[in-house]
Amino acid sequence: MLLRNARKANSMLLGRVMPTALSRRLASSSKKNKKQAMQKQKQKNTADSQHARIAAHQDMLSAPPKSIASPSIDPSEFVPSSEFSGSRTPTKLHFSGDLSKYSWKSDKNTLRLDQPDQLSFEKEAMFDPSIHLPYAPQDWKGYEPATPLSDFLFQRIGVSGQITTAEYMRHCLTNPDYGYYTNPPSSLEKAMDDDWDDDWKGKDLSENKETVGATLTSKNNSTIIGPKGDFVTAPEVSHVFGHCICVWLMTQWQMMRKPARVQIVELGPGRGTLITDILQLATSSKLSDFGESIISVHLIEASRELRQQQKRSLTETLGHLIDFEFENIQSENEYDQDGNVEDAAHSSSKFAMKVEWHDDFSSFSFKRDKESPVMMVLQEFIDALPVHVFQMTEEGWRERLIDVASSADKKSSSGELLPRLRQVMAPNVTPAVELFLDSESYFNLPLGTVVEVCPEGIMLVQDMAKILDESEGVALIIDYGQEGTGDTLRAFSNHKQVPLTSHPGQVDVTADVDFFALKNCIADGNVKGFGPVTQGEFLMRMGAGDMVIHKIEEESTTEDQALALSEALKYLVMPEHMGERYKVMSLGKKRDGIFAPPGMET
Predict the structure, then answer these.
(1) pLDDT at residue 100, as a whole number
(2) More exposed terminus of the chain, fewer Cβ within 10 Å: N or C?
(3) Whole-number Å distance between alpha carbons of 353 and 383
(4) What's the average model confidence in pLDDT over 49-76?
(5) d(Cα 162, Cα 153) in Å, to the nearest integer?
(6) 369, 261 Cβ separation under 8 angstroms
(7) CA 154 to CA 160: how far, in whole Å?
(8) What CA–CA distances, in Å, run from 94 to 179, 231, 528, 531?
């Protein structure tokens, strides 16, 4: 659609320019009356052509594409892992597309195929619902209320045509003005749904903040992360998770022969809980040598609100231990834990550490210290990167797109309000199908098979591998997913699944990570992918059980705290909770060319 619109705009422009250019070329050899006659005839042909194109465009818009159902995932599941409406078994496929043709078009906030001759202008300014969306409902009775992002997408779809699921997902999460992460719905009160997980009913974890996670009730009042938000991440459940990650990083640092200077990078730091827990253990007396080697921390975070929460988490928890130097963050009043300026003598006894924020990974790549090893952590980051969704139909592979709802759509019999946007199947082959599904391994898959491709995830891992190769570094990826792809794109609000296109910009949109694709995309390089192993297996290998037992056996630990510690460990490692749904994969070089990184042994 985007290519067709670009060609259409170019054609209209040529239709206006060519008559004048042609008349000038004929002026030197033609008589005046002949030149005027030719100009009139050319203008008439151009006008007829333009009218024909406009009429064809309106006819196309007035015929709404066929809708498809949302993925059939059980909404009672916190993080579904195998309920796919298409291919029930994750499909391992070799990706062979040329991602060099896939580029970022920043002026329109969309990722698309290269179009060097595409005109750049504000097409949304031409939007007229009666012309561009004649098939849309008129009164919107029975539909959800509009959101600022849905209004924006109406204009975009109306003028430019249906958008890919990847573009929709990107707008939903990181649109500069209306994105879920970049502009969280803080004005909406997020109330915790009592039955979001039966295992946590009636448990007030805030009373056990020393052992279960201080950030659950800290001043980091995120409206999207935590029990009162839309989802809970492992670092928010217990300090044990972050301490296990720190143990893994420290072990890798030892295998690097204890370099004096290392850089730690976290992509998608959320409220800052994980990086705070990592640094808390790293700067303890037991691991102080490792802590002193951390010269800088780099946080890849686009949200200004979350940056402030990350800064507060670090300052309030570790301000008495670490002398932070913050960069690329809006200045606030600097204070220590008691709100007082510390004296120079006290400050000199603390760890010194620079913390710098970056909008994207390329910023860090450009600014990093080229002489120091890099250690990266990605915890529930890749699942938020945009995916293209394809389905095998009787006509071959077709891409799922996002369109405005149609007045011809069937209304809900239960009386539930319908989303104003819907999923549709592209009637023809799209450029993304030609780019991503050109391998023979895709040709003979069964009818109804669904494949998701995350180009940004693949390119990110390739960029990471390049830096890890140059710096002799390592990376750890923790996310939900499997080795293969299926129909997993979905949305969550208040710990419950909602329709994918519901309340754009105000709900979380996510897709399972295809670890097979991530490993395969760097298979030919020096840096390899190891794993994945289940989160439960990894944490236990890193000593999670011993940590909890040691804490429980301390005399100062109360019975309530001991119970909370036990429940938190169970939630992190047991298969029926996070233990099996979440996987852990590492990137690096084999130790001595033989051994896999710790925790990744098979």
Answers:
(1) 61
(2) C
(3) 30
(4) 40
(5) 10
(6) yes
(7) 10
(8) 32, 32, 16, 17
Residues 2-43: pLDDT tens digits?
A: 334 433 333 333 333 333 333 333 344 444 455 555 555 555
Q: Is the pLDDT of residue 135 over 50?
A: yes
Q: Mean of the per-residue pLDDT values for the chain?
A: 77
Locus of tokens 């649109």? 175
Q: What is the mean pLDDT of residues 361-386?
A: 96
Coil, strand or helix at 108: helix
This prediction has a pTM of 0.77
Q: Which pLDDT band holds residue 245 (cuts at 50, 70, 90)?
A: very high
Half-sphere exposure of 121 (CA within 13 A, CB side): 12
Q: Is the peptide bond before 598 cis (omega within 30 degrees of 0)?
A: no
Three-state secondary structure call for residue 116: coil
For the chain, what's the residue count? 602
Host H or E run for residue 48: helix 32-62
Six-digit token string for 411: 């209304």
The span from the CA of 529 to the CA of 447, in Å, is 32
d(C-alpha 491, C-alpha 412), whole Å: 19
Short-list 421, 513, 451, 383, CA closest to 163? 421
Looking from the CA of 286 toward its CB, the CA atoms found within 13 Å total 7
Q: Which residue has the tokens 């010194």?
A: 352
Answer whether 290's CB lies under 8 Å from 328's CB: no
DSSP 578: I
**Spatial separation of the C-alpha atoms in residues 235 and 213, rounded to whole Å:** 8
Ramachandran bin of 15, using left for φ above 0, alpha for ψ from -120 to 50, beta for the remaining angles = alpha
Minimal CA–CA distance to 379: which of 87, 123, 585, 150? Answer: 585
Q: What is the rounded distance in angstroms from the CA atom of residue 2 to the CA atom of residue 7?
A: 9
DSSP strands (E only) in 50-200: 102-105, 110-113, 163-164
Q: Radius of gyration (Cα) for the chain, nearest Å?
A: 27
**What six digits make up the tokens of 57?**
């465009």
Amino acid at 331: S
Contacts of 475 (CB under 8 A, 6+ apart): 375, 376, 377, 378, 464, 468, 586, 587, 588
CA distances from 334 to 286, 319, 328, 475 (A): 29, 10, 15, 32
**What contacts 583, CB < 8 A, 6 or more positions away?**
478, 479, 480, 481, 482, 513, 515, 531, 532, 533, 534, 535
CA distance 246 to 210: 18
Question: How deeply is 293 buried, as exposed, middle or buried, from its count of CB atoms within 10 A (0-12, 13-18, 19+)?
Answer: buried
DSSP character string of 400-462: EEEEE--TTSPPPTT-PPBPSEEEEE-SS--HHHHHHS-SGGGTTPPTT-EEEE-HHHHHHHH
Report the percent of the chain where pLDDT is more than 70.
67
